[in-house]
Amino acid sequence: MQTTEKTQPKLLNLKKRLSEINDLEAAASLLYWDQATYMPPGGAAARGRQLATLQKIAHSKFTDPAMGELLEGLRPYEETLPYFSDEASLIRCTRKNYHRAVQVPAEFMGEFSEHRTETYSVWVKARATNDFAAVRPYLEKTLDLSREMAYFFPGYEHIADPLIDFADYGMKVSILRTLFSQLREELVPIVEAITAQSPTDNNCLHQRYPEEEQLDLTLKVMKQMGYDFERGRQDQTHHPFMINFSTGDVRITTRVDEDDLSQALFSSIHEMGHGLYEQGIRRDLEGTPLACGTSSGVHESQSRLWENIVGRSRGFWKFFYPQ
Amino acid sequence: MQTTEKTQPKLLNLKKRLSEINDLEAAASLLYWDQATYMPPGGAAARGRQLATLQKIAHSKFTDPAMGELLEGLRPYEETLPYFSDEASLIRCTRKNYHRAVQVPAEFMGEFSEHRTETYSVWVKARATNDFAAVRPYLEKTLDLSREMAYFFPGYEHIADPLIDFADYGMKVSILRTLFSQLREELVPIVEAITAQSPTDNNCLHQRYPEEEQLDLTLKVMKQMGYDFERGRQDQTHHPFMINFSTGDVRITTRVDEDDLSQALFSSIHEMGHGLYEQGIRRDLEGTPLACGTSSGVHESQSRLWENIVGRSRGFWKFFYPQ
Fold first, then answer.
1. Average pLDDT, stretch B143-152?
2. Strand order in A249-254's β-sheet?
3. Set of chain B residues whose Cβ sits within 8 Å of the Cβ of A229
């Protein structure tokens, strides 16, 4: 970023506040990562409380009225800058997030966070015994809390709109319905044409592949694809995800089924796609809201590009299968 | 703990504040644990900043003047309670920590924390090449910062006294010098008597022991000794330590030398000794300053009890060696 901090003490103040909030969020992310990878079962109750506390404090700091005043105070400066400059974008994105965040009380953020952590623990246990009934009341509460979250943003066309907007700024149900119906027209014939064929023999994926060897393979593939292990790592979990704690620490997780090579391999490639996107972010944007993917949609385009267009391509298998 | 919260809203307020601070400290501990076990090298710079931020916020919250007023306001209630009751002890310990914490500015706490994180990264790299010169300037700065820390507590007899007091409340150089000289009188003849013997053949410890098998052995020994893996786990690091994030999550770390069985085995038993002590803490004290070891001295007595009195005993080896 340009260093205009000396001439713009307000911008310096903004960046300092954002960096502190970012540190709290990064710590919360690590608590989540640990919960999903290595945490012993006994840690679950306290972990929920710890995550809720961090998120409450981060939220309180971000919604501090001083933040709003700062953003207003920066408006004249912002208007002198090109719209897509780093600094104008930083101020604009922060303002968008701020106006969204002040709608939601910190207590509610804490409550929702604690509920998510509890749900995760229940799900991990229920998954082992395929016990949907155990998870059901938690999912129902998630739905209630999601509705409650939407109520903080009155004026929506559809109750899901505010929630979709969190993930994909500007997206809403009415746009998605049109988009999906257009896609359906084109996709259904393609799917029909494929399923009309006799099924491909994918028996080679369903041999017995020991865990260690599968993990070695995923690491080899990821290295070849350009994922930087100096700034990342892979661990095992129940439901794979990508998570980052800084531009220098972007991790992925995977899961192994010893009777199905496709689980670990495609999970790893998919999450690595998310990871490559995050690892590609300019390092000097760190600690600001610009240092993340622009939307869930774009993020998913990156993961699926690597998983499907590359990982399921003939070229990929011609290269790796003989090795 | 007795639930007198309804009659003592100030006590409830105190516990709520302490629990929030405890959550921040637990998050900082997890950031440290991760740095020492799984963090990729690229995460180091941001990790230092994140740890410093958490410690600064925890410190600011703890030294909030409202905390001091609360502790003063609780004095009349405290005086009605038995000295060693949970609640009187909670108020007393918190007050002791508070009066200590307000001496030190939050900025200094952040600076010291960041320096420690940086030093750790430098040490890990220097250790691989046995490069003391690389670490030396960092150790010198640690010494400077430690002196600066002591200056915040004027009136000491010896400059190390305030620092020793952090680890062992009430202990100071003059007491330790007397203690050590008494110990020396008794210990030196014992050491001389031992070293006068021809050295024992400990060749059996210095065979080639593969990492996996050593780790399996340590886990087996720890289970037998009563360490609860539902509320703990063991990971590898460069310099073993015990760390806890709640009474339900008390972890240890170890290190393996494939040519020396004693490294991992005695490290694990030692750290497990610390861990057993923490796992034995009453669960309902969680989130308060009472939920930790009473001093470094007592803590070390537990780790060394298990490492030396048990782990190096004939009985231990008679039991485990044949297995």
1. 97
2. A234-236, A249-254, A242-246
3. 40
